[in-house]
Write a structure and sequence with these properties.
about 475 residues; alpha/beta; 8-stranded mixed beta sheet; 7-stranded mixed beta sheet; 11 helices; 22 strands
Amino acid sequence: MARKKKIVEDVEIVDFGFKGKAIGKDKAGQVYLIDNAVPGDVVDVLVLRKKKGMLAGFPKNYKTFSPERVEAQCGHFGVCGGCAWMKISYEAQLKYKEKSVLDAMQRIGKLAFKETIPILPSVEQVYYRNKLEFTFSDKRWITQEEAALDITIENRDALGFHRPGAFDKIVDIDHCYLQGGISNEIRNSIRVYAKENGLSFYNITGQSGLLRTLIIRTTTLGEVMVIVTLGRKEKDQRIGLLTFLKEKFGEKITSLNYVINTKGNDTIYDQEVICFNGQAHITEQLGETKYQIGPKSFFQTNPKQAEKLYEIAKAFADLKSTDLVYDLYTGLGSIALFLAKDVKEVVGIEEIPEAIVYANKNAELNDLSNTHFYAGDVKTLLTKDLIEKHGKPDVLITDPPRVGMHEDVVRSLIYLRIPKIVYVSCNAATQARDLNLLKEVYSLEKIQAVDMFPHTNHVESVALLKLLDE
Protein backbone atom coordinates (compact mmCIF):
# COMPACT_ATOMS: atom_id res chain seq x y z
CA MET A 1 0.00 0.00 0.00
CA ALA A 2 1.34 3.42 -0.96
CA ARG A 3 2.18 5.67 1.97
CA LYS A 4 -0.19 8.60 2.38
CA LYS A 5 1.36 11.96 1.49
CA LYS A 6 1.75 14.40 4.37
CA ILE A 7 0.10 17.84 4.25
CA VAL A 8 1.57 20.59 6.44
CA GLU A 9 -0.63 23.62 7.07
CA ASP A 10 0.24 27.32 7.26
CA VAL A 11 3.73 27.32 5.78
CA GLU A 12 4.97 30.88 5.23
CA ILE A 13 7.04 31.50 2.10
CA VAL A 14 10.00 33.64 3.18
CA ASP A 15 12.48 33.74 0.27
CA PHE A 16 13.71 32.21 -2.97
CA GLY A 17 16.48 29.62 -3.02
CA PHE A 18 18.29 27.31 -5.45
CA LYS A 19 17.05 27.54 -9.05
CA GLY A 20 14.40 30.06 -8.03
CA LYS A 21 12.39 27.66 -5.89
CA ALA A 22 10.56 29.15 -2.94
CA ILE A 23 11.71 28.59 0.63
CA GLY A 24 9.07 28.23 3.33
CA LYS A 25 8.98 27.73 7.10
CA ASP A 26 6.28 26.26 9.29
CA LYS A 27 5.47 27.33 12.84
CA ALA A 28 8.01 24.84 14.24
CA GLY A 29 10.82 26.28 12.08
CA GLN A 30 11.02 23.37 9.61
CA VAL A 31 12.33 24.53 6.20
CA TYR A 32 10.57 23.62 2.96
CA LEU A 33 11.59 23.85 -0.71
CA ILE A 34 8.40 24.59 -2.63
CA ASP A 35 7.39 24.87 -6.27
CA ASN A 36 4.86 27.47 -7.48
CA ALA A 37 5.03 29.83 -4.52
CA VAL A 38 6.09 33.43 -3.91
CA PRO A 39 7.57 35.05 -0.79
CA GLY A 40 4.64 36.38 1.20
CA ASP A 41 2.34 33.46 0.36
CA VAL A 42 0.97 31.30 3.18
CA VAL A 43 0.23 27.78 1.94
CA ASP A 44 -0.63 24.25 2.94
CA VAL A 45 2.18 22.09 1.55
CA LEU A 46 1.86 18.58 0.14
CA VAL A 47 5.21 17.05 1.12
CA LEU A 48 6.73 14.78 -1.54
CA ARG A 49 10.25 14.05 -0.28
CA LYS A 50 13.06 15.09 2.02
CA LYS A 51 16.13 16.70 0.50
CA LYS A 52 19.22 17.83 2.43
CA GLY A 53 17.30 18.46 5.63
CA MET A 54 14.49 20.29 3.84
CA LEU A 55 11.06 18.94 2.98
CA ALA A 56 10.20 19.39 -0.69
CA GLY A 57 6.70 19.71 -2.08
CA PHE A 58 4.13 22.02 -3.63
CA PRO A 59 1.15 24.06 -2.42
CA LYS A 60 -2.00 22.04 -1.94
CA ASN A 61 -3.90 25.13 -0.86
CA TYR A 62 -3.13 28.86 -0.79
CA LYS A 63 -4.24 30.50 2.47
CA THR A 64 -2.87 33.97 1.67
CA PHE A 65 -1.46 35.34 -1.56
CA SER A 66 1.67 37.51 -1.55
CA PRO A 67 1.23 41.23 -2.35
CA GLU A 68 4.16 40.75 -4.77
CA ARG A 69 2.07 38.49 -7.00
CA VAL A 70 0.78 39.72 -10.37
CA GLU A 71 -1.24 38.04 -13.10
CA ALA A 72 0.99 36.44 -15.73
CA GLN A 73 0.27 37.78 -19.21
CA CYS A 74 1.23 34.55 -21.02
CA GLY A 75 -1.48 31.97 -21.65
CA HIS A 76 1.09 29.17 -21.33
CA PHE A 77 2.26 30.30 -17.89
CA GLY A 78 2.50 27.53 -15.34
CA VAL A 79 2.71 24.84 -18.00
CA CYS A 80 5.81 25.41 -20.15
CA GLY A 81 8.04 26.67 -17.33
CA GLY A 82 9.89 29.18 -19.51
CA CYS A 83 8.95 32.28 -17.49
CA ALA A 84 8.51 30.87 -13.98
CA TRP A 85 8.73 34.32 -12.35
CA MET A 86 6.10 36.01 -14.54
CA LYS A 87 3.74 35.71 -11.57
CA ILE A 88 5.92 38.17 -9.58
CA SER A 89 6.02 41.94 -10.07
CA TYR A 90 9.11 43.08 -11.94
CA GLU A 91 10.22 45.26 -9.02
CA ALA A 92 10.14 42.19 -6.75
CA GLN A 93 12.04 40.11 -9.33
CA LEU A 94 14.86 42.67 -9.28
CA LYS A 95 14.93 42.67 -5.48
CA TYR A 96 15.32 38.89 -5.21
CA LYS A 97 17.87 38.70 -8.02
CA GLU A 98 20.10 41.33 -6.43
CA LYS A 99 19.75 39.60 -3.07
CA SER A 100 20.78 36.25 -4.61
CA VAL A 101 24.01 37.78 -5.92
CA LEU A 102 24.95 39.48 -2.65
CA ASP A 103 23.99 36.38 -0.63
CA ALA A 104 26.28 34.23 -2.81
CA MET A 105 29.19 36.61 -2.31
CA GLN A 106 28.77 36.51 1.47
CA ARG A 107 27.68 32.89 2.00
CA ILE A 108 29.79 31.07 -0.62
CA GLY A 109 32.58 33.56 -1.24
CA LYS A 110 32.97 34.73 2.38
CA LEU A 111 33.68 38.08 0.78
CA ALA A 112 33.58 41.67 1.93
CA PHE A 113 33.07 44.27 -0.76
CA LYS A 114 33.57 47.99 -0.67
CA GLU A 115 30.68 49.00 -2.92
CA THR A 116 27.46 47.51 -4.26
CA ILE A 117 25.67 49.23 -7.11
CA PRO A 118 21.89 48.70 -7.45
CA ILE A 119 20.80 46.06 -9.96
CA LEU A 120 20.31 47.30 -13.52
CA PRO A 121 16.78 46.54 -14.81
CA SER A 122 16.37 45.08 -18.29
CA VAL A 123 15.64 47.55 -21.08
CA GLU A 124 12.77 45.27 -22.14
CA GLN A 125 10.81 42.80 -20.01
CA VAL A 126 9.13 40.93 -22.89
CA TYR A 127 10.30 40.04 -26.41
CA TYR A 128 13.89 40.51 -25.27
CA ARG A 129 15.49 37.25 -26.44
CA ASN A 130 17.32 36.97 -29.75
CA LYS A 131 17.43 33.16 -29.78
CA LEU A 132 14.89 30.43 -29.01
CA GLU A 133 15.00 26.70 -29.65
CA PHE A 134 11.72 24.84 -30.10
CA THR A 135 11.19 21.09 -30.20
CA PHE A 136 8.91 19.02 -32.44
CA SER A 137 7.21 16.06 -30.79
CA ASP A 138 4.42 13.59 -31.48
CA LYS A 139 3.73 13.51 -27.73
CA ARG A 140 2.08 16.82 -26.93
CA TRP A 141 1.56 17.62 -23.25
CA ILE A 142 -2.11 17.12 -22.40
CA THR A 143 -3.55 19.89 -20.24
CA GLN A 144 -5.60 19.19 -17.11
CA GLU A 145 -8.67 20.56 -18.87
CA GLU A 146 -8.21 18.14 -21.78
CA ALA A 147 -7.55 15.20 -19.45
CA ALA A 148 -10.76 15.97 -17.56
CA LEU A 149 -12.80 15.55 -20.78
CA ASP A 150 -11.83 11.86 -20.89
CA ILE A 151 -11.67 11.75 -24.68
CA THR A 152 -9.14 10.21 -27.08
CA ILE A 153 -6.89 12.82 -28.69
CA GLU A 154 -5.90 11.50 -32.10
CA ASN A 155 -3.21 13.99 -33.11
CA ARG A 156 -0.70 14.94 -30.43
CA ASP A 157 1.88 16.66 -32.65
CA ALA A 158 3.42 19.73 -30.98
CA LEU A 159 5.99 22.41 -31.60
CA GLY A 160 7.14 24.25 -28.51
CA PHE A 161 9.03 23.83 -25.24
CA HIS A 162 9.77 20.84 -23.03
CA ARG A 163 7.39 20.41 -20.12
CA PRO A 164 9.47 20.71 -16.90
CA GLY A 165 9.99 17.25 -15.40
CA ALA A 166 8.77 15.46 -18.55
CA PHE A 167 11.60 15.34 -21.10
CA ASP A 168 9.53 13.51 -23.71
CA LYS A 169 6.49 15.82 -23.55
CA ILE A 170 6.29 19.13 -25.42
CA VAL A 171 3.98 22.04 -24.61
CA ASP A 172 2.50 23.29 -27.87
CA ILE A 173 3.23 27.04 -27.95
CA ASP A 174 0.84 29.43 -29.67
CA HIS A 175 2.37 32.76 -28.62
CA CYS A 176 5.67 33.24 -26.79
CA TYR A 177 6.48 36.55 -25.10
CA LEU A 178 10.22 35.90 -25.07
CA GLN A 179 11.03 36.63 -28.72
CA GLY A 180 9.50 39.33 -30.87
CA GLY A 181 9.51 40.09 -34.57
CA ILE A 182 8.21 37.30 -36.80
CA SER A 183 9.32 34.48 -34.49
CA ASN A 184 5.78 33.44 -33.50
CA GLU A 185 4.56 33.64 -37.09
CA ILE A 186 7.41 31.48 -38.38
CA ARG A 187 6.90 28.78 -35.75
CA ASN A 188 3.13 28.64 -36.18
CA SER A 189 3.40 28.61 -39.98
CA ILE A 190 5.79 25.65 -39.86
CA ARG A 191 3.41 23.73 -37.58
CA VAL A 192 0.45 24.30 -39.93
CA TYR A 193 2.46 23.40 -43.04
CA ALA A 194 3.83 20.23 -41.43
CA LYS A 195 0.39 18.98 -40.38
CA GLU A 196 -1.21 19.83 -43.72
CA ASN A 197 1.55 18.04 -45.64
CA GLY A 198 1.95 14.99 -43.44
CA LEU A 199 5.47 15.70 -42.15
CA SER A 200 6.17 13.50 -39.14
CA PHE A 201 7.00 15.10 -35.78
CA TYR A 202 9.85 13.58 -33.81
CA ASN A 203 9.34 10.81 -31.27
CA ILE A 204 11.88 11.62 -28.58
CA THR A 205 11.71 8.22 -26.87
CA GLY A 206 11.85 6.15 -30.05
CA GLN A 207 14.31 8.50 -31.82
CA SER A 208 12.23 8.56 -34.99
CA GLY A 209 10.47 11.12 -37.16
CA LEU A 210 11.42 13.90 -39.58
CA LEU A 211 10.99 17.25 -37.81
CA ARG A 212 13.23 17.51 -34.76
CA THR A 213 14.05 21.07 -33.62
CA LEU A 214 13.65 24.66 -34.77
CA ILE A 215 16.04 27.48 -33.85
CA ILE A 216 15.09 31.10 -34.54
CA ARG A 217 17.67 33.86 -34.07
CA THR A 218 16.95 37.58 -34.51
CA THR A 219 18.90 40.82 -34.25
CA THR A 220 18.02 44.40 -33.35
CA LEU A 221 18.87 45.27 -36.98
CA GLY A 222 15.87 43.23 -38.12
CA GLU A 223 17.75 40.20 -39.44
CA VAL A 224 16.44 36.66 -38.87
CA MET A 225 18.09 33.24 -38.95
CA VAL A 226 16.09 30.01 -39.06
CA ILE A 227 17.63 26.56 -38.51
CA VAL A 228 15.43 23.48 -39.00
CA THR A 229 16.88 20.24 -37.66
CA LEU A 230 15.67 17.03 -39.29
CA GLY A 231 15.92 13.49 -37.94
CA ARG A 232 16.38 11.94 -41.37
CA LYS A 233 17.11 13.03 -44.95
CA GLU A 234 13.73 12.83 -46.77
CA LYS A 235 14.91 15.18 -49.52
CA ASP A 236 11.52 15.97 -51.09
CA GLN A 237 9.84 16.82 -47.77
CA ARG A 238 12.84 18.86 -46.67
CA ILE A 239 12.94 20.92 -49.85
CA GLY A 240 9.17 21.36 -49.71
CA LEU A 241 9.27 22.82 -46.19
CA LEU A 242 12.27 25.08 -46.82
CA THR A 243 10.82 26.31 -50.13
CA PHE A 244 7.56 27.11 -48.32
CA LEU A 245 9.47 29.22 -45.77
CA LYS A 246 11.46 30.95 -48.53
CA GLU A 247 8.33 31.83 -50.49
CA LYS A 248 6.16 32.84 -47.51
CA PHE A 249 8.69 35.01 -45.71
CA GLY A 250 11.05 36.01 -48.54
CA GLU A 251 13.79 38.38 -47.47
CA LYS A 252 12.36 38.60 -43.95
CA ILE A 253 14.42 35.46 -43.28
CA THR A 254 18.01 36.59 -43.77
CA SER A 255 19.53 33.13 -43.29
CA LEU A 256 17.56 29.90 -43.86
CA ASN A 257 19.39 26.74 -42.81
CA TYR A 258 18.90 23.05 -42.10
CA VAL A 259 20.71 20.26 -40.26
CA ILE A 260 20.40 16.48 -40.68
CA ASN A 261 20.87 15.08 -37.17
CA THR A 262 20.47 11.31 -36.72
CA LYS A 263 22.34 11.00 -33.41
CA GLY A 264 20.88 10.57 -29.93
CA ASN A 265 20.94 14.19 -28.71
CA ASP A 266 19.67 17.47 -30.15
CA THR A 267 22.86 19.54 -30.09
CA ILE A 268 23.98 20.78 -33.50
CA TYR A 269 27.46 21.94 -32.50
CA ASP A 270 29.01 18.76 -33.93
CA GLN A 271 26.77 18.77 -37.04
CA GLU A 272 27.02 20.42 -40.44
CA VAL A 273 24.68 23.40 -40.86
CA ILE A 274 23.68 23.86 -44.51
CA CYS A 275 22.47 27.23 -45.77
CA PHE A 276 19.44 26.70 -48.03
CA ASN A 277 18.79 30.37 -48.81
CA GLY A 278 20.29 33.77 -47.98
CA GLN A 279 23.58 34.26 -46.20
CA ALA A 280 25.29 32.03 -43.66
CA HIS A 281 25.18 34.63 -40.85
CA ILE A 282 23.16 37.49 -39.40
CA THR A 283 24.51 40.81 -38.14
CA GLU A 284 24.01 42.45 -34.75
CA GLN A 285 25.22 45.82 -33.47
CA LEU A 286 25.97 46.85 -29.88
CA GLY A 287 26.94 50.50 -29.62
CA GLU A 288 29.28 51.17 -32.52
CA THR A 289 30.42 47.54 -32.77
CA LYS A 290 29.00 45.13 -35.34
CA TYR A 291 29.01 41.34 -35.03
CA GLN A 292 28.44 38.62 -37.57
CA ILE A 293 26.69 35.72 -35.84
CA GLY A 294 26.82 32.20 -37.27
CA PRO A 295 24.42 29.30 -36.66
CA LYS A 296 26.60 27.91 -33.85
CA SER A 297 27.83 31.21 -32.40
CA PHE A 298 27.22 32.06 -28.75
CA PHE A 299 25.95 35.59 -28.28
CA GLN A 300 24.21 37.23 -25.34
CA THR A 301 20.51 36.44 -25.68
CA ASN A 302 19.31 39.89 -24.57
CA PRO A 303 21.17 42.20 -26.97
CA LYS A 304 19.87 45.56 -25.74
CA GLN A 305 20.83 44.62 -22.19
CA ALA A 306 24.13 43.12 -23.37
CA GLU A 307 25.19 46.58 -24.51
CA LYS A 308 24.46 47.87 -20.99
CA LEU A 309 26.36 44.92 -19.49
CA TYR A 310 29.44 45.62 -21.60
CA GLU A 311 29.28 49.32 -20.74
CA ILE A 312 29.38 48.35 -17.05
CA ALA A 313 32.36 46.05 -17.62
CA LYS A 314 34.09 48.85 -19.52
CA ALA A 315 33.39 51.38 -16.74
CA PHE A 316 34.62 48.97 -14.04
CA ALA A 317 37.84 48.42 -16.01
CA ASP A 318 38.47 52.20 -16.19
CA LEU A 319 40.41 51.69 -19.41
CA LYS A 320 43.28 53.79 -20.71
CA SER A 321 44.43 54.10 -24.32
CA THR A 322 47.74 52.47 -23.35
CA ASP A 323 46.15 49.38 -21.75
CA LEU A 324 46.74 45.80 -22.82
CA VAL A 325 43.55 43.78 -22.13
CA TYR A 326 43.09 40.01 -22.01
CA ASP A 327 39.56 38.68 -22.59
CA LEU A 328 39.02 35.10 -21.39
CA TYR A 329 36.16 33.02 -22.80
CA THR A 330 35.80 35.63 -25.52
CA GLY A 331 33.30 33.74 -27.70
CA LEU A 332 33.07 35.53 -31.04
CA GLY A 333 34.92 38.45 -29.47
CA SER A 334 31.84 40.25 -28.17
CA ILE A 335 33.44 42.04 -25.19
CA ALA A 336 36.93 42.22 -26.71
CA LEU A 337 35.71 44.03 -29.82
CA PHE A 338 33.45 46.29 -27.77
CA LEU A 339 36.51 47.54 -25.84
CA ALA A 340 39.15 47.43 -28.56
CA LYS A 341 38.84 51.04 -29.79
CA ASP A 342 39.56 52.35 -26.29
CA VAL A 343 42.78 50.42 -25.61
CA LYS A 344 46.16 49.65 -27.11
CA GLU A 345 45.63 45.92 -27.66
CA VAL A 346 43.20 43.08 -26.83
CA VAL A 347 44.00 39.38 -26.62
CA GLY A 348 41.02 36.99 -26.62
CA ILE A 349 40.93 33.28 -25.80
CA GLU A 350 38.05 30.92 -26.62
CA GLU A 351 37.74 27.12 -26.65
CA ILE A 352 35.44 26.83 -29.70
CA PRO A 353 37.42 27.24 -32.96
CA GLU A 354 34.41 28.39 -35.00
CA ALA A 355 33.85 31.23 -32.55
CA ILE A 356 37.41 32.43 -33.13
CA VAL A 357 36.81 32.36 -36.89
CA TYR A 358 33.93 34.78 -36.32
CA ALA A 359 35.97 36.85 -33.85
CA ASN A 360 38.55 37.48 -36.55
CA LYS A 361 35.83 38.20 -39.12
CA ASN A 362 34.26 40.68 -36.71
CA ALA A 363 37.59 42.41 -36.07
CA GLU A 364 37.90 42.93 -39.81
CA LEU A 365 34.26 44.04 -40.05
CA ASN A 366 34.99 46.77 -37.48
CA ASP A 367 38.36 47.79 -39.01
CA LEU A 368 40.26 46.71 -35.88
CA SER A 369 43.90 45.77 -36.16
CA ASN A 370 44.74 45.63 -32.44
CA THR A 371 42.97 42.35 -31.60
CA HIS A 372 44.49 38.87 -31.38
CA PHE A 373 42.34 35.78 -30.90
CA TYR A 374 43.39 32.26 -29.93
CA ALA A 375 41.36 29.05 -30.10
CA GLY A 376 41.91 26.59 -27.26
CA ASP A 377 41.25 25.85 -23.61
CA VAL A 378 41.86 28.90 -21.43
CA LYS A 379 43.73 26.85 -18.81
CA THR A 380 46.11 25.63 -21.55
CA LEU A 381 46.67 28.94 -23.36
CA LEU A 382 46.95 31.34 -20.41
CA THR A 383 50.66 30.62 -19.87
CA LYS A 384 54.06 32.31 -19.68
CA ASP A 385 54.42 31.85 -23.45
CA LEU A 386 51.37 34.01 -24.13
CA ILE A 387 52.58 36.62 -21.64
CA GLU A 388 56.03 36.67 -23.25
CA LYS A 389 54.46 37.11 -26.69
CA HIS A 390 51.97 39.89 -25.88
CA GLY A 391 53.01 41.18 -22.46
CA LYS A 392 51.39 41.11 -19.03
CA PRO A 393 47.89 42.61 -19.24
CA ASP A 394 46.91 45.77 -17.39
CA VAL A 395 43.31 44.54 -17.24
CA LEU A 396 41.80 41.08 -17.55
CA ILE A 397 38.15 40.49 -18.46
CA THR A 398 36.70 37.04 -17.79
CA ASP A 399 33.21 35.89 -18.76
CA PRO A 400 33.15 32.12 -18.20
CA PRO A 401 30.24 29.70 -18.70
CA ARG A 402 27.92 28.80 -15.79
CA VAL A 403 30.44 26.35 -14.31
CA GLY A 404 32.85 29.23 -13.70
CA MET A 405 36.61 29.17 -14.21
CA HIS A 406 38.73 26.03 -13.99
CA GLU A 407 40.93 25.86 -10.89
CA ASP A 408 44.02 25.96 -13.13
CA VAL A 409 42.84 29.30 -14.56
CA VAL A 410 42.32 30.69 -11.04
CA ARG A 411 45.82 29.54 -10.07
CA SER A 412 47.23 31.24 -13.18
CA LEU A 413 45.54 34.51 -12.21
CA ILE A 414 46.96 34.27 -8.70
CA TYR A 415 50.42 33.69 -10.18
CA LEU A 416 50.17 36.46 -12.81
CA ARG A 417 48.89 39.14 -10.38
CA ILE A 418 47.24 41.27 -13.04
CA PRO A 419 46.39 44.73 -11.58
CA LYS A 420 42.64 44.61 -12.36
CA ILE A 421 40.19 41.83 -13.12
CA VAL A 422 36.60 42.38 -14.26
CA TYR A 423 34.63 39.16 -13.73
CA VAL A 424 31.34 38.89 -15.65
CA SER A 425 29.18 35.95 -14.62
CA CYS A 426 25.82 34.33 -15.31
CA ASN A 427 26.09 32.22 -12.14
CA ALA A 428 26.72 34.09 -8.89
CA ALA A 429 27.43 30.84 -7.01
CA THR A 430 30.41 29.81 -9.17
CA GLN A 431 31.54 33.43 -9.40
CA ALA A 432 31.58 33.65 -5.59
CA ARG A 433 33.50 30.37 -5.40
CA ASP A 434 36.18 31.69 -7.79
CA LEU A 435 36.41 35.06 -6.03
CA ASN A 436 36.90 33.24 -2.74
CA LEU A 437 39.94 31.50 -4.23
CA LEU A 438 41.28 34.79 -5.57
CA LYS A 439 40.84 36.79 -2.35
CA GLU A 440 44.32 35.93 -1.11
CA VAL A 441 45.71 38.36 -3.69
CA TYR A 442 42.66 40.42 -4.77
CA SER A 443 40.10 42.62 -3.04
CA LEU A 444 36.51 42.79 -4.27
CA GLU A 445 36.09 46.49 -4.95
CA LYS A 446 32.53 46.58 -6.23
CA ILE A 447 29.80 44.42 -7.70
CA GLN A 448 26.62 45.02 -9.68
CA ALA A 449 23.82 42.66 -10.66
CA VAL A 450 22.38 43.03 -14.16
CA ASP A 451 19.00 41.61 -15.14
CA MET A 452 19.44 39.91 -18.51
CA PHE A 453 16.56 37.45 -18.16
CA PRO A 454 13.26 38.99 -16.95
CA HIS A 455 10.64 36.57 -15.54
CA THR A 456 13.29 33.97 -14.70
CA ASN A 457 15.49 33.52 -11.63
CA HIS A 458 18.66 33.96 -13.70
CA VAL A 459 20.84 37.05 -13.25
CA GLU A 460 24.24 38.31 -14.40
CA SER A 461 26.73 40.05 -12.16
CA VAL A 462 29.86 42.11 -12.77
CA ALA A 463 32.64 42.27 -10.18
CA LEU A 464 35.77 44.44 -10.06
CA LEU A 465 38.85 42.94 -8.41
CA LYS A 466 42.02 44.86 -7.62
CA LEU A 467 45.38 43.47 -6.67
CA LEU A 468 46.16 43.80 -2.99
CA ASP A 469 49.19 45.85 -2.00
CA GLU A 470 52.14 43.53 -1.62
